[in-house]
Amino acid sequence: MTRSIHRQLPDEDIIYFGDTARVPYGNKSRATVIRFAREIMAFMMENRVKMVVVACNTASSLSLTSLKKTYPVPVIGVITPGVRDAVRVSKNGRIGVIGTSSTIASGAYDREVARAGLSCRLFSKSCPLFVPLVENRFINDPITYEVARRYLAGFKTRHIDTLILGCTHYPILRTVIGKVMGNVRLVDSSSAAAEEVKATLSKKGLEASRRRRGKTRYYVSDDVEGFSRVSGIFLKEKINVKKVVI
Fold first, then answer.
1. Could you read off the pLDDT of 63-92 as tens digits, one per residue?
2. Model's pTM, two decimal places?
3. Catalytic: 56?
4. CB contact at 8 A, 50 and 73
5. Domains of the chain, earliest start first
6. Which of 1, 55, 59 is nearest to 25 (CA)?
């Protein structure tokens, strides 16, 4: 997500918080995820941020409404931008979405499609093994291809032409998923959310006024070394990370 935002808004400073002490969120209850999200928001408010992006699909699906009602800054999730982008590129209106168990069980993507009044059909599938496969660097391993084939087989009979990658880890498996699915458009919710960030900052007049390369500060709640190791898969660079207690 940070890479996507920097591509769209190179002048903006970013504060990233990864809740490494309590992940994965995908198997947590709604009440627990909302509590965690509020604790993270308190940390963000202490750092005087002007906008918050809930980059986790599970947290977006379960806590976004509560956060928007509670805090004075714009709060953006990844569900709405992902659906909007999928609807835009789909030709036959048959869209798939994959995510964690909690994201899919929440029905957030289904509600978003219904709320928009779209004449699309949405087909969902939870893929819980994708996250540990990514974090353990089984990116192009035969095991990953086999897991993907089993998870995604049902979409073939549904004749979808677009698939939303509804978890921040899943775009790392884009090549695997693309080969398994064939001629299907893959939608990265993170890229779509970054475009939403840019549009919202512009609309509210909150863009950075100076012209310099923005900086990113990384914070985690535990396991700095583990985060630095895993983050290299996403960021393709070494980063400085600090541990904070929230």
1. 999 999 999 999 999 999 999 999 999 999
2. 0.86
3. yes
4. yes
5. 2-77+192-243 (3.40.50.1860), 79-187 (3.40.50.1860)
6. 59
